[in-house]
Design goal:
The protein is an alpha/beta fold. It has 15 helices and 15 strands. 40% of the residues are buried. The structure holds adenosine monophosphate and zinc ion. Zinc ion binds next to loops.
Length: 476
């Protein structure tokens, strides 16, 4: 079965066919790091995380790149307000962002290119555009001449004539036409700056994504994503720059997420109506936040309300209860020597739910519909468990396998499956190693040796080295 995706560029659902077989190269616009990550960002990044996880689940190798805008007007302005160095400020919020994403169990990108570490690449790109006649130098910077790029507007549907209506070049701006945008900004006093053929300055915003995405993913790649607000002007300008430079089509599929809304408005830093991911994590388990996001299709707007969060919390609890029921039932489950009516029914329900789940995910990553299928499976298993005296192992296993796949794709139930368990186990081992070291220091060698011997029986070998005790797993 093929995956179908809605492509903003063609305004319809298309069969997903990556350029190189078996590989998906994907770029998602990252944050401008001058403040804490809010729930609106989380919505977008969780959505792309699940898209990426699903593609991986379907067997693709996914190469994922996400940029950090670590120098721009907003960062400079905020640094002035706080009295911090702009680079330090950006560095700080970049770390917080990575921490927040890890807490939300968003898988890290393969590369996180930062503007300040790619200035030379950006200068090269701008120079190429200038050589090809698409860019010109003005008094305060280098500009992209929008009128020279024939396909301008193909993503957003915006027409150049409309853009020009009523617009004018402001006094002091060095561009020829109001629609032209900056590729390079000449330095103003006190701003961070880099050497360039056009004097000291810094890159404009859009050019970073064209430069860094093509550097890591090539001149053509499969998916480019971001929130809806980036379609125009950001992505439109990215297309103009890149296709003007390479002379051929750049990105196959453009994917955009709907907004996270609060009382009918977009959650945003500038409106001040935001809740940070950190605040949310103090109140909710990360998986509740993920479930809350996944209950809507990624392109639809999502209203943030307390009730919505509580609803997600209850739903997650219901699913965990089912998983726990399965675990307990598994202990006394029967091998199947024969199936009765109940087994045939339960099998049929699980099979159906699984089919619906994959159909929904194949249909433009419809997580909302896919989740309904997960709940159907959950209901079916609970019904089965209450209908039979001794459940059959094969039925429970079928259910568990489905939930495991859902866990992998949605980043849910991680407390339940392997990864988290291994983490816990390591913490316990560390604790025992520490207790044993204390015992040795207190010359209680008998108990210390016993701990070592017992751990060894469990497949954990301790070695006392000059730097302290280390442990490793062994086969016993
Ligand atoms: P920014 O740091 O504002 O450039 O945003 C980084 C990413 O988060 C962009 O892809 C935005 O479209 C996205 N984003 C910002 N606010 C929201 C929101 N309220 N809902 C969904 N996505 C958002
Ligand atoms: Zn971008």
């Amino acid at each position: 079965m093929a995956i179908r995706v809605y492509n903003t560029l063609t305004r319809r659902k298309e069969e997903f066919r990556p350029i190189r077989e078996g590989e998906v190269r994907m770029y998602v616009c990252g944050p401008t790091v001058y403040d804490y990550t809010h729930l609106g960002h989380a919505r977008t990044y969780i959505a792309f995380d699940v898209i990426r996880r699903y593609l991986e689940h379907r067997g693709y190798t996914v190469l994922m790149v996400m940029n950090f805008t670590d120098i721009d007007d907003k960062i400079i302005r905020r640094a002035r307000e706080t009295g911090e160095d702009p680079r330090e400020l950006a560095e700080r919020f970049l770390r917080y962002f990575l921490e927040d994403m890890a807490s939300l169990r968003v898988k890290p990108a393969d590369v996180y290119p930062r503007v300040t570490e790619h200035i030379d690449d950006i200068i090269d790109f701008v120079r190429k555009l200038q050589e090809k006649g698409y860019a010109y130098e003005g008094s305060d910077g280098v500009y992209f001449e929008v009128g020279k790029f024939g396909d301008y507007g193909k993503l957003s549907g915006i027409r150049l004539e409309d853009l020009r209506k009523g617009a004018r070049v402001e006094p002091g701006e060095g561009k020829k036409n109001p629609e032209d945008f900056a590729l390079w900004k000449k330095a103003k006093p006190g701003e961070p700056k880099w050497e360039s053929p056009w004097g000291e300055g810094r890159p404009g915003w859009h050019i970073e994504c064209s430069t860094m995405s093509t550097k890591y993913l090539g001149e053509s790649f499969d998916i480019h994503g971001g929130g809806n607000d980036l379609i125009f002007p950001h992505h439109e300008n990215e297309i103009a720059q890149t296709e003007a430079c390479t002379g051929h089509e750049w990105v196959r599929y453009w994917l955009h997420t709907g907004f996270l809304m609060v009382n009918g408005e977009k959650m945003s830093k500038s409106l001040g109506n935001f809740v940070t991911v950190r605040e949310m994590l103090r109140r909710y388990d990360p998986e509740v936040i993920r479930l809350f996001v996944l209950q809507r299709h990624y392109r639809s707007p999502l209203d943030y309300t307390e009730e919505g969060m509580e609803h997600a919390k209850n739903n997650l609890e219901r699913l965990y209860n089912t998983l726990e029921n399965i675990r307990v039932a598994m202990k006394e489950a029967d091998i199947s020597f024969r199936w009765e009516k109940e087994e045939f029914e339960a099998y049929e329900s699980i099979r159906n739910a699984r089919k619906k789940f994959y159909e929904a995910m194949d249909d433009d990553f419809n997580t909302a519909e896919a989740l309904k299928a997960v709940f159907e499976a959950s209901t079916a298993v609970n019904r089965y468990l209450s209908d039979v005296e001794r459940p059959k192992e094969s039925i429970l296993r079928k259910a568990m396998e489905f939930f495991k796949a859902v866990s992998e794709i949605f980043g849910l139930f991680e407390d339940y499956f392997r990864e988290r368990k291994a983490e816990n186990e390591e913490a316990f081992i560390e604790l025992l190693v520490e207790v044993r070291s204390r015992l040795r220091r207190e010359r209680n060698f008998e108990l210390a040796d016993e701990i070592r011997a017992r751990l060894r029986e469990l497949g954990i070998q301790l070695e006392d080295t000059p730097k302290g005790t280390v442990w490793k797993r062994i086969r016993v």
